[in-house]
From TrEMBL:
Domain of life: Bacteria
Any Pfam family hit: Acetyltransf_2
GO MF term (any one): acetyltransferase activity
Protein name listed in UniProt: Arylamine N-acetyltransferase
Organism annotation: Segniliparus rugosus (strain ATCC BAA-974 / DSM 45345 / CCUG 50838 / CIP 108380 / JCM 13579 / CDC 945)
SUPFAM superfamilies, per database record: Cysteine proteinases (SSF54001)
């Protein structure tokens, strides 16, 4: 007799019986096919990645996110908020599973040019269509807008953004073209990740005092022409070739920037908490964050 654990596959683990596909489609403005084809996967990831911003306000305030798909859907609809990596990966995987895709997830290392080995603090969606596997990194914030085929030397392009995949020392590595040139974004080994793994990563990044996401409000969004990033009290607008603008953002201006640039709206209580914590962090001496913490 097989155990419940043995019966749960890496794909079925992401299926959510209560997931409201119609509500998800409405939120991201998707009106295409619901058939589990590559074209559906491509159009769905593009709509999702250009509609839902990345933001870390819960982590910044030390509150681990609720990683149940219905709660995540409430957050981006009723709450008018963005998502972190673990939230976004969970949401997209649940949507693909509901559509009948073979979908799994992988634990990834954020590189962003780091020369040392970084921790498994990131999660990506792995989807298979007609025997071909694709890397769908909806939770990176400024990652690929479309699926990237998992094959050594494979390349992809969506608008101005170019990406390339290579196999290196037992891991798939994703590189992307940025205003600073080509850099390695992230990497992962071909080992399944499960929802419970997201809980551990989410808790660590939300509560560890040296988590980079506890230091400053961050948010990002992108489309096929440019990306907008809020980080370290600065708003940066860039393309794949150049930085278009840099604007300093004060503690008080952070709230309207989150709302106007990213569509992230906070309740009055959280608004006060965010401004107070920004001021506190800017008055506190900084320390270096070990690269192993980055995610």
């Amino acid at each position: 007799m097989s155990s419940p654990v043995a019966a749960q596959t890496a794909s079925s683990a992401w299926f959510c019986e209560d997931f409201d596909l119609d509500r998800y489609f409405e939120r991201i403005g998707y009106t295409g096919s619901a058939e589990p084809t590559f074209q559906t996967l491509r159009e769905l990831q593009l709509a999702d990645s250009t509609s839902i911003p990345w933001e870390n306000i819960e982590m910044f305030l030390g509150r681990p996110a609720v990683l149940e798909p219905p709660a995540i859907l409430d957050k981006i609809t009723v709450g008018r908020r963005g998502l972190t990596c673990e939230e976004h990966t969970t949401l997209f995987a649940a949507a693909l599973a509901a559509l009948g895709f073979h979908v799994e997830c992988r634990s990834a290392r954020v590189r962003m040019g780091a020369e040392k080995i970084t921790g498994l603090s990131h999660a990506v969606v792995w989807a298979q269509v007609d025997g071909t596997a694709y890397w769908c990194d909806v939770g990176f914030g400024t990652g690929p807008l479309e699926p990237v085929r998992l094959a050594d030397g494979a390349r992809g392009r969506a608008g101005v953004w170019e990406h390339a995949v290579r196999w290196e020392r037992g891991e798939w590595v994703l590189a992307g073209k940025t205003a600073e040139g080509w850099i390695d974004f992230s990497s992962f080994a071909d080992v399944p990740r499960y929802p419970v793994d997201n809980l551990y990563t989410n808790h660590f990044l939300s509560t560890h005092p040296r988590s980079p996401f506890r230091k400053t409000p961050r948010a990002s969004r992108m489309d096929e022409s440019h990306a907008v990033l809020l980080q370290g009290g600065e708003l940066v607008v860039s393309t794949a070739d150049e930085v278009l603008s840099r604007t300093e953002v004060s503690a008080e201006d952070t709230l309207p920037v989150l709302a106007e640039e990213f569509g992230v709206h906070l309740c009055e209580q959280d608004q006060a908490l965010v401004v107070a914590r920004i001021r506190d962090m800017r008055d506190t001496p900084r320390f270096d964050t070990p690269e192993a913490v980055l995610g």
